[in-house]
């Protein structure tokens, strides 16, 4: 073998040392990068950069946005990464009008609260205070109001719980467009008909009907009104049949 092809151990040692040094430097740079990355995460989590900037509430119709945010316990000092979604949801559901509440992060600094409220079917009045009634017939005494919105009617003279529950169940089956037109529902039972009711409508008409199958019967209301002279008001009788009786 030629001497030119023989590499002495003395010639290889510097190259080996250089290769080891490069490898050690790369390893050091790698560990330092991880170290500074972890430090920057810690600094970020402790700094205002991770705090919630915007809280967006959606789906609420009855419960004010400010109350939902207050129940959540969230502030602009809360880190977006430290929140407990389940705990926040349970806190918001402490309001009896709230059925469910879903929490979503909108990075980098936003949070979304999606509220699903119980269906509002009416209000009950007591000493000039008003209480919401939800779809299962529960009267939410905790949510006393000084006035009512036009989203659901006022239920009057329902002194029998059985007929009250039947009425709220029927109202829950109504299309929202018809429910919003009803201003008041008066229970006017007679010996012959315990289900008799009189409705005062926001468009100026009265409706005489019964609790039994009320939701199905009222589906014809919009078509009846569309055929009437808007200047002539009266009572619309909706029962076994339907007919109009003018006040005049």
Describe this structure in words.
This protein has an eight-stranded mixed β-sheet with strand order 5-4-6-7-8-9-10-11. The chain is built from seven helices and eleven strands. The termini are far apart. Strand 8 (196-201) and strand 9 (206-210) form a beta hairpin. It folds into three domains: 3-40; 50-117, Roll (Ubiquitin-like (UB roll)); 120-246, Rossmann fold, CATH 3.40.50.10960. Helix content is 33%, strand content 26%. Helix 2 crosses helix 3 (85-92). It is rod-shaped, with a radius of gyration of 35 Å.
Keywords:
alpha/beta, rod-shaped, Ubiquitin-like (UB roll), Rossmann fold
Largest sheet: 8 strands, mixed
Intertermini distance: 129 Å
Low-pLDDT stretches are: none
As a whole number of angstroms, the C-alpha radius of gyration is 35 Å
SSE topology:
Blueprint: H1 9-46, E1 54-58, H2 65-72, H3 85-92, E2 98-106, E3 110-117, E4 120-126, E5 129-134, E6 154-156, H4 161-173, H5 176-179, E7 182-187, E8 196-201, E9 206-210, H6 214-217, H7 221-226, E10 234-238, E11 242-246
Parallel strand pairs: 1-3, 4-6, 6-7, 9-10
Antiparallel strand pairs: 2-3, 4-5, 7-8, 8-9, 10-11
Helix pairs in contact: 2-3
Short structural summary:
By secondary structure, the protein is α/β, with parallel strands linked by helices. Helix content is 33%, strand content 26%. An eight-stranded mixed β-sheet has the order 5-4-6-7-8-9-10-11.
């Amino acid at each position: 073998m030629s001497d030119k092809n023989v590499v002495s151990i003395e010639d290889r040692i510097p190259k080996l040392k250089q290769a080891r040094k490069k490898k050690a430097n790369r390893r050091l740079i790698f560990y330092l990068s991880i170290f500074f990355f972890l430090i920057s995460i810690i600094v970020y989590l402790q700094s205002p950069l991770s705090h919630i900037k915007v809280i967006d509430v959606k789906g609420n119709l009855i419960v004010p946005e400010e109350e939902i945010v207050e129940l959540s316990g969230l502030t602009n000092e809360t880190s977006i990464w430290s929140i407990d979604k389940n705990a926040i949801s349970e806190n918001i559901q402490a309001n009896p009008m709230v059925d469910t509440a879903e929490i979503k992060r909108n990075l980098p600094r936003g949070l979304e609260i999606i509220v699903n409220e119980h269906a509002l079917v009416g209000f009950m009045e007591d000493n000039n205070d008003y209480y919401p009634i939800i779809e299962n017939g529960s009267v939410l005494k905790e949510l006393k109001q000084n006035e009512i919105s036009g989203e659901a009617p006022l239920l009057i003279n329902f002194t029998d719980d059985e007929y009250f529950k039947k009425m709220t169940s029927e109202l829950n089956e109504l299309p929202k467009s018809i429910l919003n037109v009803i201003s008041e529902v008066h229970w006017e039972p007679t010996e012959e008909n315990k289900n008799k009711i009189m409705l005062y409508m926001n468009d100026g008409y009265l409706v005489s009907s019964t609790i039994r199958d009320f939701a199905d019967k009222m589906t014809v209301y919009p078509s009846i009104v569309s055929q009437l002279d808007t200047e002539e008001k009266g009572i619309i009788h909706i029962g076994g049949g339907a007919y109009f009786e003018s006040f005049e």
